[in-house]
Amino acid sequence: MQIKKATASASSNIAFIKYWGKKDEEKIIPMNTSVSMTLRDSVSTTTTVTFSSQFPKDTLVLNGKKEVGKKLEKVSQFLDIIRKKFAVHEHAAVESQNSFPTGCGIASSASGFAALAMASVEALGITIGKKELSALARRGSGSACRSVYTGFVTWSGSFAEQIYEKKHWPELRDVIVIIDAEEKKMSSRDAMKRTVETSDAYKKRLTVVDDRVEVVKQAIGQKDFPLLAKTIMEDSDELHACLKDTKPNVKYLTEKSYKIIEVVRRMNMDQVIVGYTFDAGPNAHLITLEQHVESVVQNIKACMGDVSIIIG
Ligand code: DP6
Fold first, then answer.
1. Is 145 exposed, middle or buried, given 0-12, 13-18 or 19+ CB atoms closer than 10 A?
2. What pLDDT shows up at residue 3?
3. Is the peptide bond before 226 cis (omega within 30 degrees of 0)?
4. Which mutation among 14, 188, 283 tests ligand 1's pocket best, with the greatest number of atoms within 8 A of CB?
5. Which among 17, 19, 74 is the best mutation to test ligand 1's pocket, defined by most ligand atoms within 8 Å of the CB?
6. Is the pLDDT reported for residue 1 higher than 70?
7. In Å, what is the CA distance from 114 to each residue of 17, 149, 185, 222, 262?
8. How far apart are the CA of 136 and the centre of ligand 1, in A?
9. CA of 267 to the centre of ligand 1 (A)
10. 99-138 pLDDT, tens per residue?
């Protein structure tokens, strides 16, 4: 019997311009263009997929723990898309391991579905191009379509594309400050749907976000750190303002998140050396250059006490 098994790894990514809202809920087509940087191995997922006619159903082991609930359901639905697309009938055993501690509050759906898409097609012996792979990963989770590439990536429609290789600006880092390890109460999927349906601030965002995308692309292209930092903070602030304007409102930022924003402001008094950005959770992503990582970490620890920090 032929063994259909493969292992693949993908890193998570941090959005400089956030994807928020879908034009098509089922196919996961985004309302707006997003721009991201794929992170390093410190924030990655490695997944092994085995397809076999002997398996009566799909199974999932995540960080050594057998999953049966919602997580397995999401993976199984994604495998259904693959089975339908490539006329495959076998069930699969999926084993997935994150490089970061379990339950540390870092979302793993981007790296998770990118690695799952890669390992699945490889296990099935299917050769597809990067765009098709990105489009496939998108069906698991929108942000995953950006994680099939390294470097700097943009996503507008059905697939993401690399705009600059990692080596274009290798000094850029994401200092991730874990201030809450709890799993978020409201998923980004549910929250973004509610924002699209109820927020006027979000309608306004859609009219300005494309210009901001161009500014971020320009800042990356010219390696203009102050411009990049200023623009990503603006975009993060706008996203969380839209969440505040969502009815009923959605709050991901906590007092500690705001405290970090204050620390960033203080660090940038003389010279802009760091920019904050927050996804659908309270943990801060502090974008900075390699030469400032140590000082950013020291400043955060001095104000926040002994928080966990991962450098991505
Ligand atoms: C705030 O990709 O997790 O991180 O497509 O519904 O699975 P689904 O959502 P998801 O949303 C990510 C939202 C974000 C911004 C971003 O990464 O662009």
1. buried
2. 82
3. no
4. 188
5. 19
6. no
7. 20, 9, 24, 29, 34
8. 15
9. 29
10. 987 766 677 899 999 999 999 999 999 999 999 999 999 9
* Residue 182 confidence (pLDDT): 73
Strands (DSSP E) contained in the chain are 4-11, 13-17, 22-24, 29-30, 34-38, 44-52, 59-62, 65-67, 91-98, 152-155, 160-164, 172-178, 274-277, 284-289, 308-311
Q: Nearest to residue 228, comparing CAs of 43, 36, 38?
A: 36
Q: What is the DSSP string of 225-258?
A: HHHHHHHHHHHHHHHHHHHHHSSS------HHHH
What the block records as the tokens of 12 is 């998570």
Whether 179 contacts 257, CB under 8 Å: yes
- Mean pLDDT value of segment 84-113: 90
Query: Both tokens of residue 114?
Result: 């990118």
Range 206-212 average pLDDT: 98
Length in residues, the chain = 312
> pLDDT per residue over 247-283, tens digit each?
999 999 999 999 999 999 999 999 999 999 999 999 9
Q: CA triplet 237, 241, 243: central angle to 5 degrees?
A: 120
CA distance 251 to 90: 42
